[in-house]
Amino acid sequence: MDRFRDPVELARVLGDALSGTGALYRQLAAALAGAVSDGALVAGDRLPSERDLARALHVSRATVVAAYDELRGRGVLESRQGSGSRIAAPADREPAAVTRRLRRGLSAATVRRFDDAPDGLISMRYALEPGDPRISSALADVVEEDLPSLLDEVGYLPRGLPALRQALADHHTGLGLPTSAEQVLVTTGTHQALALVSQLLLERGATVAVESPSWPGCFDTFSAVGARMVGVPTDEEGLRVDRLREMLVAEQVAALFVMPSFHNPTGTLMSARRRAEVARAAAEHGVPVVEDLAYATALTHDGPLPPPVAASASAGGRVLTAGSLSKTLWAGLRLGWVRASEQDVEELARLKAHADMGTPLLDQAVAARLVPDLAALAADRTAVARDRLAHAGALLRTHLPDWSWQAPAGGTALWIRLPGYDAGILAQVALRHGVEVTPGRETDPTGAWDDHLRLPFTFEPDLMTEVVRRLAAAVADLRRP
Fold first, then answer.
1. Per-residue confidence at 97, pLDDT binned at 50, 70, 90?
2. 65 half-sphere exposure, CB direction, 13 A CA radius
3. Cα separation of 132 and 136, whole Å?
4. Quick one: pLDDT at residue 129?
5. How far apart are CA 302 and CA 400, in angstroms?
6. Are strands 84-87 and 77-80 parallel, antiparallel or unpaired?
């Protein structure tokens, strides 16, 4: 398999390989060998030419030549006349197929960064904020008032704590989607919600339609069950239904994944009319819709939101709605959910029981006290988000005036178009200046968005100022002959 013939793709896998100390060629050789040992590169993967990889990494060709030579000496790399350089067969057994896919996935760098961020690196791969202080009050109330009854529970509730399921049902009803507690499954974050839905809906080899661009994590989640993704273009109202209908005729699509409220990475808010059209088109072709509302409360937006796609589903339509508290309250409160038909919730509960027997009850009890005030909690962050969006925009217009973007309707990031250079190459240079960004190719592997990058704007002002300073220095370095 020639997965890594593309030099910018290989540069992405190597991450911050060249931001350490010592000879560059040795850093590069060590990074390539590490990618082999952890499964990101496997036997038979063909590496780019020395010249192409040097261009992608913004280093000299001699650096890549020396690194390849060292790897040949270690037996990691083998080269044949006319067929280039490939990863040599390993001495031990390769990891399982699903493990390989996840290690090679588009969001793997984000996962690694949670554990091993180098000193001084500012990672813009995620937009995390401190927890809402009201979590402390809710936790104190749980300990004082709820703990005795919780301790009487058996502890295993795969569907979720009844009080939280009811609170989430009331929340969805308030969004214009009438819901009963029996239609709610509590999960350990949106990631698990989508993983369970993938197991429910998808067989190996199935096709999933996704917005283009889309969230890198969904690619990895669907790939982990052996599915393939096909992209549907978007416009200012969201997913283009005309192109969706074309795809549903041309492809046997097993599921459609959408982020209608403040789409990641573009920040688009899908209109109510477009949501109804998406639901109708999917129902006509018997395709389940998975809607991710994780960003629905990440606001810079004025006014009420359109009802979820599920609210437009006809009697024959099948829509599963996922949500999360991470963007509103705290990423450390790992609470997500799926709202679906009672039959789907029953099946998902079986999968949930097999995965972990249930999300921790103390976390759920805290969430049950906060969900009824979710709209007010989100509104409190809106003013701060708007100020930080304005601050980030002013910085970029001053220091990187040829970058362009549309102000997002909501969410946490800017979707920026770069003027004539590849975001993947810029990402490599930026790492050497101590800042990490998400290039557009990670949001759509087809290459349609290689000149875009995702840049969160919710960081506190001093940190955002430093980020833009470092990015401007990286751009100057990139443009230097």
1. very low
2. 4
3. 8
4. 76
5. 28
6. antiparallel
Distances (CA, A) of 10 to 4, 249, 470: 6, 35, 23
DSSP 219-272: HHHHHTTT-EEEEEEEETTEE-HHHHHHHHHHS-EEEEEE--BS-TTT--B--H
Q: What pLDDT was estimated at residue 98?
A: 43
322 phi and psi, to 5 degrees? Answer: -105, 145
Q: How far apart are CA 259 and CA 197, in angstroms?
A: 15
- Give the pLDDT of residue 34: 83
Q: Is the pLDDT of residue 368 over 80?
A: yes
Mean pLDDT of the chain: 88
Q: Are 138 and 370 in contact (CB under 8 A)?
A: yes
Q: Pick the closest to residue 106 from 259, 238, 222, 239 (CA basis).
A: 222
- Residue 90: the pLDDT is 62
Distances from the Cα of 433 to the Cα of 61, 334, 458, angstroms: 21, 32, 21
pLDDT at 458 over 80: yes
> With contact defined as beta carbons under 8 Å apart, do 387 and 186 qualify?
no
Residue written as token pair 């990631």: 191
Residue 370 has a pLDDT of 95
Handedness of CA 15, 21, 24, 29 (dihedral sign): negative
pLDDT digits (tens, 9 = 90+) for 424-446: 999 999 999 999 999 998 888 67
Q: Is the pLDDT of residue 266 over 90?
A: yes
- Dihedral over alpha carbons 233, 234, 235, 241 (to 10 degrees): 90
Strands 438-439 and 452-456, by their bridges, are: antiparallel
Which residues are bridge partners to 86 per DSSP?
A: 46, 78
How far is the C-alpha of 249 from the C-alpha of 288, rounded, in Å?
15
- Please, what are the domains in the chain? 3-96 (1.10.10.10), 111-130+376-479 (3.90.1150.10), 134-374 (3.40.640.10)
Q: How far apart are CA 273 and CA 264, in angstroms?
A: 20
Answer yes or no: are the C-beta atoms of 41 and 3 closer than 8 Å: no
Q: Which of the two residues, 391 and 22, has the higher pLDDT score? A: 391
| Distance separating alpha carbons of residues 335 and 365, to the nearest angstrom | 11
Instruction: Give the bridge partners for 184, in sequence order.
Output: 339
Per-residue tokens: 434 = 């101590």
Please tell me whether residue 325 adopts helix, strand or coil conformation: coil
Is residue 67 classed as helix, strand or coil in its secondary structure?
Answer: helix
**Which amino acid appears at position 94 of this protein?**
E
DSSP state, 181? G
pTM above 0.70, yes or no: yes
Q: In the prediction, which pLDDT does 445 show?
A: 65
Indicate the burial class of 453 (C-beta count within 10 angstroms; 0-12, 13-18, 19 or more): buried
